[in-house]
Amino acid sequence: MSRKEKPKRKVSHVKYGPDKSILLFVIVMAIFGSIMIYDASVYKANQVFNDQFYFLKSQVTWLILGSIPALILYFIDYRKLLKFSFLGLLTVIALLILVLIFGDSINGSKRWFEIAGLPPIQPAEFAKLAVVMYFSYWLAKKENKSTKLQESLKKWFTNNFLSFFAIFAVVALLILLEPDLGTTMIIGVTAFGMFFVSGNDRTHTVGSIGVSLLAIPLVLIAAILEPYRISRIKTFFNLILKGEVADPQGSGYQMQQILIGIGSGGFWGKGFGQSRQRFGYLVENTAFTDSIFAVILEELGLWGGTLIVLSWIFFLWRGFKIALRAVDKEGQLLATGITIWLTCQAFFNMAANVGLVPLTGIPLPFLTYGGSSTIVTLMAFGLLLNVSRYSKNA
């Protein structure tokens, strides 16, 4: 060894406890979400099941069930778990195919199906976790060492991007066929975000930005393929440009009812349990699912909604901090992917409920009633806390 060469310092993996602030965030959100789901679902639970606690009991059951795989994902070293991520991805792809064939058709969509008499599952929710885990493992091993930009871009495109896009496209296409554009968008933003941060050279940065810009027209094309999406987009642009909801008794009905609830809540809100929109004004079960944030704004007002937004900003900061302190690239990508996924999902939902983006049906983690969404969210937090157990000690 020459004098100029320095021996490489080994990085030891030191175990710590979980990130306490993230753990507290999960506990508080799970409890608050259960309370608000109960509050927003009382009318429907009494009307259909003659049991005001029906949806609350289901949500608590899912929280308990979801805690089991979350604990497993927390205690097993994530590096060992990621070795099986390709098998997990193949399983999810198989489930996405099965739901298209055997799934229950609800409002023209095939998103759920039952297995052996168990409660219905939504494979697209599990696809989010499977994609994040697999790309964390796969992207961590990808490198591009060419020096010339033109040559480097060519190798980057053929060796890195095409493989990445092929894997993503298979999952995205299957979910689009359900159809579920909202989930496809969340997976797309998450996957491309992970891809972008997986490299740090000029070639990767230039290529990633170029591909991201080209992806925008594809999203717009997908958005106008279904008539109901066009109606939602028209409603959104009419609200943004003219300040009023088009066709309030038709395609704009849901947005109209959401705005009525938010407007009546004002700054302080009507108070817990005082929402009127939950009494059948919000279509179907959306008062405690897709539009629960509107009910929260109606009852707790602007201050309550602001606290929720700030809580997710806090999670975004802590999630990225965990990613930066991860002991390896796999951990960095895993923490980054989970943070991007859950934060984008939360903000898309909240933005749709205040008219900043078109309504998409994207769930708000922990606050939206739903089995698959709750279980997958808990599993994601289990993995994130797993990464937080380790830190660099050079």
Automatic annotation (TrEMBL):
<feature type="transmembrane region" description="Helical">
    <location>
        <begin position="21"/>
        <end position="40"/>
    </location>
</feature>
<dbReference type="GO" id="GO:0009252">
    <property type="term" value="P:peptidoglycan biosynthetic process"/>
</dbReference>
<feature type="transmembrane region" description="Helical">
    <location>
        <begin position="161"/>
        <end position="177"/>
    </location>
</feature>
<keyword id="KW-0328">Glycosyltransferase</keyword>
<feature type="transmembrane region" description="Helical">
    <location>
        <begin position="183"/>
        <end position="199"/>
    </location>
</feature>
<dbReference type="GO" id="GO:0005886">
    <property type="term" value="C:plasma membrane"/>
</dbReference>
<dbReference type="GO" id="GO:0008360">
    <property type="term" value="P:regulation of cell shape"/>
</dbReference>
<feature type="transmembrane region" description="Helical">
    <location>
        <begin position="123"/>
        <end position="140"/>
    </location>
</feature>
<keyword id="KW-0812">Transmembrane</keyword>
<feature type="transmembrane region" description="Helical">
    <location>
        <begin position="60"/>
        <end position="77"/>
    </location>
</feature>
<dbReference type="GO" id="GO:0032153">
    <property type="term" value="C:cell division site"/>
</dbReference>
<dbReference type="GO" id="GO:0051301">
    <property type="term" value="P:cell division"/>
</dbReference>
<protein>
    <recommendedName>
        <fullName>Probable peptidoglycan glycosyltransferase FtsW</fullName>
        <ecNumber>2.4.99.28</ecNumber>
    </recommendedName>
</protein>
<dbReference type="InterPro" id="IPR001182">
    <property type="entry name" value="FtsW/RodA"/>
</dbReference>
<keyword id="KW-0132">Cell division</keyword>
<keyword id="KW-0808">Transferase</keyword>
<feature type="transmembrane region" description="Helical">
    <location>
        <begin position="84"/>
        <end position="103"/>
    </location>
</feature>
<keyword id="KW-0133">Cell shape</keyword>
<keyword id="KW-0131">Cell cycle</keyword>
<keyword id="KW-1133">Transmembrane helix</keyword>
<feature type="transmembrane region" description="Helical">
    <location>
        <begin position="366"/>
        <end position="387"/>
    </location>
</feature>
<feature type="transmembrane region" description="Helical">
    <location>
        <begin position="332"/>
        <end position="354"/>
    </location>
</feature>
<keyword id="KW-0573">Peptidoglycan synthesis</keyword>
<dbReference type="Pfam" id="PF01098">
    <property type="entry name" value="FTSW_RODA_SPOVE"/>
</dbReference>
<feature type="transmembrane region" description="Helical">
    <location>
        <begin position="206"/>
        <end position="225"/>
    </location>
</feature>
<feature type="transmembrane region" description="Helical">
    <location>
        <begin position="300"/>
        <end position="320"/>
    </location>
</feature>
<keyword id="KW-0472">Membrane</keyword>
<comment type="similarity">
    <text>Belongs to the SEDS family. FtsW subfamily.</text>
</comment>
<dbReference type="GO" id="GO:0015648">
    <property type="term" value="F:lipid-linked peptidoglycan transporter activity"/>
</dbReference>
<dbReference type="GO" id="GO:0008955">
    <property type="term" value="F:peptidoglycan glycosyltransferase activity"/>
</dbReference>
